[in-house]
Design brief:
alpha/beta; FAD/NAD(P)-binding domain; 2 domains; five-stranded parallel sheet; four-stranded parallel sheet; 9 helices; 22 strands
Length: 396
């Protein structure tokens, strides 16, 4: 009897986990089902490019996982019963159809979406680029703007910086500004901060610093000090909220809904459930939680896949520490910033800037996409027989 592994979500973390499991385990011993609501893999790190009209290469999941032993199931997850070991789904291409998948091991990688943070008007009037639908809506809106129209990007993190610079470069006729809760790039090294300001000045982007946005209206935003900033379009990039399914389960989750896991990405409350990517609360160096990002998601996927394979085959559990090396920021197509960081993600003095940094970031993005699109390549084949299958939960 095959051991049933179900992976929920085919973003960077889920897709990488599924492909790595297929590389680690024998097909005759396991069945691997990858569940995703969309038929294509979405390069989330490029949504700001999609929003300004650039075309992205389509990456159908069915083609990516052909002949790998991974079954791609186009379905939307509506609930998980961790006590029975089942996943309830609906089928986007067949309205009204529902189903249930049983699993022996679950990899939860449903990721996150944008977080309007209960700011009045944000959900109604702001645009988001956390996924393809939102980026396409913003793309249509930007295309309809007349010259001189004001665009405000809210959020001074990596996503906000990339969105503001991409829009300003693609549409130099627009009046682009960015509202940051703190100082502009205040987490960067002095070299990185100087370069960021240089790029903002060259692109004509106005930075509102220490200006938390407290309300969003159809044609403006309001900051904490009462300043009104005109905005024909508001782009919201202030953080992410995880998928709500986990919070409705018996899993041990944080108050924000992230699944609490150990060093092997296994749930601390349910040993046959693993969580990766944005959905998991993962302790990094110094017990500091890893931030939600592709840079965190892919290593957690490696860790989970190798841990599952080790436990099923009697192998050695992975012991590679999860850490950071740099933060890669595109600042339009011609400029970039690679900020080197400590293991726990604090900036050090060294940074790469300019065109070479832009090239570096592009290589990183392409490498990440290649790793997903070629799920069983690039990792040495070590398919082992399952020797210690876990007991299946009794269904009722």
């Amino acid at each position: 009897m095959q051991h049933r592994i179900v992976v929920l979500g085919a973003g960077y973390a889920g897709a990488v986990a599924a492909g790595r499991l297929a590389k680690r385990l024998r097909r005759e011993d396991v069945s691997i089902t990858l569940v995703n609501a969309e038929p294509d893999f979405v390069e989330r790190v490029r949504m700001h490019q999609l929003a300004v009209g650039q075309e992205l290469r389509p990456r159908p999941l069915a083609a990516m996982f052909a002949d790998t032993g991974v079954e791609v199931r186009l379905a939307r997850v509506t609930a998980v019963d961790v006590d029975r070991g089942t996943v309830a789904v609906t089928y986007p291409n067949d309205p009204g159809r529902t189903g249930e998948l049983e699993y022996d091991t679950l990899v939860y990688a449903l990721g996150s979406a944008w977080n309007p943070q209960d700011v009045p008007g944000a959900a109604e009037h702001a645009h988001e680029i956390a996924g393809r639908p939102g980026a396409l809506r913003l793309r249509e809106r930007l295309a309809g703007l007349d010259a001189g129209a004001p665009v405000v990007v809210v959020g001074g993190g990596l996503t906000g910086l990339e969105a503001a610079t991409e829009i300003a470069e693609a549409r130099p006729d627009l009046d682009v500004s960015l509202a940051a809760r703190g100082g502009l790039g205040d987490w960067l090294s002095p070299k990185g901060g100087r370069h960021l300001r240089k790029v903002f000045d060259a692109l004509g982007i106005t930075a509102y610093e220490n200006a938390a946005v407290t309300a969003v209206a159809p044609d403006h935003v309001v900051t904490a000090d009462g300043t009104t900033v005109p905005a024909a379009v508001t782009v919201w990039t202030t953080g992410f909220a995880v998928h709500p399914v986990a919070r409705a389960t018996a899993l041990d989750v944080t108050d924000t809904g992230r699944i609490v896991v150990d060093a092997t990405m296994r749930s601390v409350s349910h040993p046959n459930v693993y969580a990766v990517g944005d959905a998991a609360l993962v302790a990094g160096p110094g017990d500091k939680p890893l931030r939600m990002s592709c840079a965190s998601g892919v290593p957690t996927a490696w860790q989970a896949a190798d841990s599952i394979a080790a436990r099923l085959t009697g192998g050695k559990l992975p012991s590679t520490p999860l850490r950071y090396f740099n933060q890669c920021v595109s600042l339009g197509r011609r400029e970039g910033l690679i900020q080197y960081v400590t293991a726990d993600d604090r900036a050090v003095g060294a940074a790469l800037t300019g065109r070479f940094a832009a090239f570096y970031k592009e290589v990183v993005c392409k490498a990440a996409a290649w790793g997903v699109a070629n799920p069983t390549l690039g990792v040495p084949a070590r398919r082992r027989a399952v020797t210690s299958p876990q007991t299946r939960p009794a269904t009722v």
